[in-house]
């Protein structure tokens, strides 16, 4: 059974690397996996049980088996001396076109996951909670592009948000009013994604990130 488990993990790893699989993606059926891995169905089921126990997949009766974020390979971190200005410069270069592409190719499952993050941010209490949902929302939009290389690049950029210099500056410039404004800007991005409006998604993302940059760096 261990060999089947390794083969299944390798199959999932290949999918996450080439962008055909991502968090929320539905795995092939047990019958398909039997054919792909040339393994007995009982061994496939036991391997899936192990992956579920490890948090790599989640199984829903009657719906199938789905990949979780735990299946994604960890990304190397951003340089420790990365400045907030550098972070925002890169975000402005990368995230608007990512939102544009997501509006074209996102699945309904992707849109549902993005909407969940939006609602989480709306109901958040305080700075830490909002920041967590903010990061999840932006990553969910990137995941909707289904490109493993892009996700790796995005995750390197996103690790910079855990650097002390970023956190302290973000906390100092945060307020309930600004968090409300950011939520409204997030809602506009999500609406454009739902409307399959690539230009609108790109422009709303760019405007949102420019506002974040201006607030962080004092360009009011």
UniProtKB/TrEMBL annotation:
<keyword id="KW-0238">DNA-binding</keyword>
<keyword id="KW-0805">Transcription regulation</keyword>
<keyword id="KW-0804">Transcription</keyword>
<feature type="domain" description="HTH gntR-type">
    <location>
        <begin position="2"/>
        <end position="70"/>
    </location>
</feature>
<dbReference type="InterPro" id="IPR036388">
    <property type="entry name" value="WH-like_DNA-bd_sf"/>
</dbReference>
<dbReference type="InterPro" id="IPR011711">
    <property type="entry name" value="GntR_C"/>
</dbReference>
<protein>
    <submittedName>
        <fullName>FadR/GntR family transcriptional regulator</fullName>
    </submittedName>
</protein>
<dbReference type="InterPro" id="IPR036390">
    <property type="entry name" value="WH_DNA-bd_sf"/>
</dbReference>
<dbReference type="Pfam" id="PF07729">
    <property type="entry name" value="FCD"/>
</dbReference>
<dbReference type="InterPro" id="IPR008920">
    <property type="entry name" value="TF_FadR/GntR_C"/>
</dbReference>
<dbReference type="Pfam" id="PF00392">
    <property type="entry name" value="GntR"/>
</dbReference>
<dbReference type="InterPro" id="IPR000524">
    <property type="entry name" value="Tscrpt_reg_HTH_GntR"/>
</dbReference>
